[in-house]
Design brief:
The protein is α/β, with parallel strands linked by helices. 44% of the residues lie in helices and 13% in strands. The chain folds into two domains: 34 residues, no CATH class; 216 residues, Rossmann fold, CATH 3.40.50. Helix 8 packs parallel to helix 9 and helix 9 packs across helix 10.
Length: 261
């Protein structure tokens, strides 16, 4: 083959690799290749290090798309009257929340299956540019009977990190910690869950303008058993009746906290 022709073909091949080619019938069509879009930065290394969250990063990575979607409208969704609801699936699934907690105006930031470590990692992003006057936090998955269960003390440490993030630019806003619910599906570990609730109660006692809402009396029978009629088929998530009970308790305590402020 003529050297000049060989060189021309080589240059053309290089161009095809760098540009990219697609075949349509017998026709070759050039396509420009673009680098993949950069992942949005959802937390800082400083925040992770300061709160000792490194061991939980791999687990939390599965929610990156959810967090990006949840925070897409942070600049416009909140208001000076908004109540931020932060936490796990019971927050995410609460479709009737606007009606249930009226006249309060809710903004939901819940992602299913999350634990306090996951919420602690993403809390700065979840609240960035979001305006709100108070925050309600419910996270119900730190004690499930699995090997990943955390001690009550570790849950308390992580909850303090979440509160700090929520208050980063709003140092005195009221924060309401809602107790982990007594559910039929996890009642076998209720004793351990109660230890978590006891630690959350301590935070409510020790931290200024932080309160703890114990819901157990409404979700247990007179003989101390969970009430299956308040939950959907999985016996973990609340049904409409359960949410009505929850909302009544939360609205009552929020009203007291905001009035006191």
């Amino acid at each position: 083959m003529n050297i000049r022709i060989h060189r021309s073909l080589l240059l053309m091949a290089c161009a095809m690799v760098s540009v990219g080619w697609a075949t349509r019938g017998n026709e070759s069509v050039a396509q420009e290749t673009r680098p993949p879009a950069a992942e949005p930065k959802l937390f800082t290394s400083e925040h992770i290090a300061a709160n000792k969250l490194e061991p939980y990063l791999e687990r939390a990575s599965k929610w990156t798309k959810d967090i990006a979607n949840l925070t897409a409208n942070n600049k416009t969704e909140g208001s000076s009257e908004a109540i931020l609801f932060l936490g796990s699936s019971s927050v995410r699934r609460w479709e009737s929340i606007a009606k249930d907690i009226a006249p309060f105006q809710p903004v939901r930031r819940g992602f299913g299956g999350s634990r306090y470590c996951d919420v602690a990692i993403y809390a700065p992003t979840l609240v960035k540019d979001l305006e709100y006057r108070a925050c309600v936090i419910f996270v119900g998955n730190d004690v499930t009977g699995s090997k990943e269960d955390k001690s009550a003390q570790e849950v308390s440490r992580l909850a303090k990190s979440v509160i700090a993030s929520v208050r980063h630019q709003r140092s005195s806003i009221p924060v309401l910690l809602v107790s982990v619910t007594a559910t039929p599906s996890r009642f076998k570990v209720w004793e351990e869950i109660q230890k978590v609730n006891a630690e959350l109660r301590k935070l409510g006692d020790e931290m200024e303008n932080v309160d703890f809402l114990d819901t157990s009396s409404e979700y247990l029978t007179s003989d101390g058993q969970p009430r299956p009629e308040l939950f959907v088929k999985d016996q973990l998530h609340q049904n409409e009746v359960g949410y009505k009970i929850w909302s009544k308790l939360i609205v009552g305590r929020l009203g007291e906290m905001l009035k006191a402020k």
